[in-house]
Amino acid sequence: MEKLIEKLIRDGYLKTPRIIEAFKEIKRKDFLLPKYKKMAGLNEPLPIDHGQTISQPLTVAFMLELLQAKSGDKILDVGSGSGWSVALISEIVGPKGRVYGLERIQELAEFAECNINKYNFISSKQARIIQGDGYKGLPEYAPFDKIIVAAAAKEVPKNLLVQLKIGGRLVLPIGETMSTQDMVVIDKGKNGQTKEKRYPGFIFVPLINDN
Q: What distance in Å separates the CA atoms of residue 88 and residue 92, rounded to the nearest whole number?
């Protein structure tokens, strides 16, 4: 994984010192099924069962650089899967930050919590995994400084925009299921208006609406 991190730095995907340090501290192998642990250093998505994957490291790096989480931020991570991104973000936001991982599949929520427990983020109450519908978000913990989504919606979920702070940022893939999607960055302005920027060329599993 060290060689992959150095390549992501050389290729310009990892730029921010705090994010680079998180990639070095939080080991991807700790979030993989046993049979895939030897593949942790591959720059590709890997299965975590239930039809889901742990994302390609390049994609995770790209999304975290777009998100630009800061020390002390409160972050919502939708589709937390293996828990790797929750742990990475917890490392980035530091002890005063809070990270809420939202995962609709109960078995994966338990898997994520077990993986994150290899670090001290849950015991310190810095991170929490909750089973639930990503489209609904977590209104009881809103508003959030930043929201990151690791599954593709056909349009921006309105609940997530409502739960985003003024001045906050939402990063998520938008597009049709299993076709080429855009990574979209949405900034919420002072009057609640939004500004977005799109980066094409991604494929994510769909964000499921349980309604």
A: 6
Structure-token pair, residue 157: 């979920």
CB atoms within 10 A of CB 14: 25
Contact 153/137 with Cβ under 8 angstroms?
Answer: no
Helices (H) and strands (E) in the chain, counts: 6, 9
Active site residues: 55
Distance of alpha carbon 131 from alpha carbon 108, whole angstroms: 9
Q: Please, what is the end-to-end C-alpha distance for the chain in angstroms? A: 39
Residue-wise pLDDT tens digits, 94-109: 999 999 999 999 999 9
User: Partners of 77 in the beta sheet?
Assistant: 101, 148
Ramachandran region, residue 207 (left: φ > 0; alpha: ψ -120 to 50; beta: rest): beta
Q: Which domains does the chain have, with CATH numbers?
A: 2-202 (3.40.50.150)
- Reading the block at residue 159, the tokens are 């609940």
Task: Please indicate, yes or no, whether the overall pTM of this predicted structure exceeds 0.90.
Answer: yes
Residue indicated by tokens 């998520």: 172
| pLDDT tens-place string over residues 166-183 | 999 999 999 887 678 999
User: What tokens were used for 26?
Assistant: 């939080």
- Give the pLDDT confidence of 179-208 residue by residue, as tens digits: 789 999 999 998 888 999 999 888 787 777
